[in-house]
């Protein structure tokens, strides 16, 4: 069965670039469409407001800044995808990270979800609260965890 | 999941804060963070933290304050800790003086990490035993880091 649609979940930062590069590589070799998603973690901001660490006006600024950063980051991935000549779209979502990605993956008939390597889990509680861990566990489609950045860079350079 | 213990450095812990007012405390802790190399522009860092305080006190109650702000005065994300035996008037929500102060700053590029760590810290500080141990059962910066590791592991 051909893998028509691949989704890559990115959070910004150097590790997400590697994740995106591997997703671009996969999309190219499998002739798939790639969708990149970035989620503004509204739940986190709500939690911070509830615990009174962050005030309302401050949360609104953070939310806007996160959205802008997400857009810029996705634009960077788009440029990379264009140079490798793959079909690409991107979207900024809002809400609880793993829930939004899983929902969008189902809506877009994603066959394969590509994500970065979740951090090492050191407590039982983290298994149920870490967004990366939850995404990996609760995704409805096969998931690829990207490791070995050097190998990813090599593969990415191989495709023209 | 990001953890405070991975970012809080021993030399960023001030175990005996002298200040008694909010502004003095922010200045003293910021100065310490600048001296150990965490803050590039001390005056800008102080300015940004004090500006944030104008929106409302970061004294969140239970003897804790978390002054924080995005700022161009640091590279990436930084955190410093100060403990005051006498207590600091931080205009806290519950009216109590503050004994535990965590100053956090982030370059705008590390905003997402900063928010995750701010959330982690506030969750840990909801634990009364953790707060009491920070106030009474830690003598050295190494004790502080180890306490974080212990409670992060316990979740």
Question: How would you characterize this protein structure?
Answer:
The complex is a heterodimer of chains A (160) and B (155). With 160 residues, chain A is of the alpha/beta class. Chain A has a single domain (5-158), classed as Rossmann fold (3-Layer(aba) Sandwich), CATH 3.40.50.12370. Chain A is 54% helix and 20% strand. Chain A contains seven helices and five strands. Chain A has helices at 14-29, 42-50, 56-83, 97-107, 124-127, 131-138, 149-158; strands spanning 5-10, 33-41, 88-95, 112-116, 143-146. The model of chain A has no long low-confidence stretch (mean pLDDT 92). Chain B is of the alpha/beta class. Chain B has helices at 22-35, 42-53, 111-124, 128-136, 141-154, and strands spanning 13-14, 59-61, 64-65, 68-70, 77-88, 98-106. In chain B, a hairpin with a 2-residue loop joins β2 and β3. In chain B, α1 runs antiparallel to α2. Chain B is globular and about 35 Å long. The chains are: A alpha/beta (160), B alpha/beta (155). Chains A and B meet through α2, α3 and α5 of A and α3 and α5 of B.
Task: Give a quick summary of the entry.
The complex is a heterodimer of chains A (160) and B (155). Chain A has 160 residues and is an alpha/beta fold. Chain A has helices at residues 14-29, 42-50, 56-83, 97-107, 124-127, 131-138, 149-158; strands at residues 5-10, 33-41, 88-95, 112-116, 143-146.
Q: What best-fitting shape of chain A do the alpha-carbon axes yield?
A: globular
Oligomer: heterodimer
Largest interface: A-B, 30 and 29 residues
CATH topology name of chain B: Mannitol-specific EII, Chain A
**Beta strands of chain B, count:** 6
The CATH architecture designation of chain B is 3-Layer(aba) Sandwich
Q: What is the helical fraction of chain B, as a range of percent?
A: 40-55%
In what range is the share of β-strand residues of chain B? Answer: 15-25%
Mean pLDDT value of chain B: 95
Q: Mind telling me the C-alpha Rg of chain B? A: 14 Å
Average pLDDT number of chain A:
92
CATH topology of chain A: Rossmann fold
Main sheet of chain B?
6 strands, mixed
> Helix coverage percent of residues of chain A?
40-55%
CATH class of chain A: Alpha Beta
Stretches of chain A where pLDDT falls below 50 for ≥5 residues?
A: none
